[in-house]
Structure formats: structure tokens, C-alpha cells
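pinned: reference chain
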Amino acid sequence: MKTKVFLTGFLTAFLVIIFSCTPSMKESQQAVKIENTLKSVSFWIDTIAVDPSELLASLERVNEAIDEIGYPDAGYKLWQIQGDTITEFKFMLEGYWPDQAIYDSIHNHVLYIEAWDPDTALWNKLDMVLYHRFLRIK
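pinned: its C-alpha cells
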């Protein structure tokens, strides 16, 4: 009887140790990275000296919404244009997207639209003068 209790206790302790030391399936699965094959680029003129940190905060909210939609590798990066050759442009906004269909679904998603809403007036202070989309050649 003592042997049976001992073996049961030993087996239980052994199983607890094994399962506590084994990573769960959720932890061992890595996020699937989606390759971005579409890029959007827009150039903006700033005639009233908008604070770049306000634009960056706006984009961080939009990028968080894109993450929530399910595309953490997509989103925007803001660049301040410097140099002697291009004086009229102030900012370049770069967007990264898996493909055209996902670009369309993100831009039509309610979370994306709501993320832009609070900052519409801020972005309207700038003049977008160029917008292009690029498809990566494989």
C-alpha cells in the first residue's frame, strides 16, 4: 500500500515537473510574418510649422489600430525631409502593406477609420502634393 501511494505521488510530481518545464503550444508558436509587397509614399508641404511629434503620435495610434486589425508588419513611418535640393517638401509618409487587397481591407476597416478621426484637422493643416503606390517586383 505504501509503495502504491509512493509511486502515485512520485508519478504526479514527475508529471507536474514535466508539464511545468515544457513550453506551451501558444508560447512556442511564432507569429507568422507577412511579407510587405506594396509601399505607399506621400510628400507633404508644411507652411505653418506643424510639430512633427504630433504627427508621429497620430501615426502611432493608426499603427496600433492596424496591429489590432491583424497586420503588425503593416503601417506607417514618418520621415522629415532634409537637404538643399528639395526645399518645398517637409515630410514624407511611407506606408508598408502586404498587398493591394489587404491595403484596401485595412483602409476600409472601422478601427483604421476611427484611428484617423481625432487627427483629421491636424493632417488637414498640411498639403499633400504627391502620392504614389509601389509594387515590389519579385
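why pinned: Residues 42 and 94 are 7 Å apart (CA to CA). The two ends are 70 Å apart (CA to CA).
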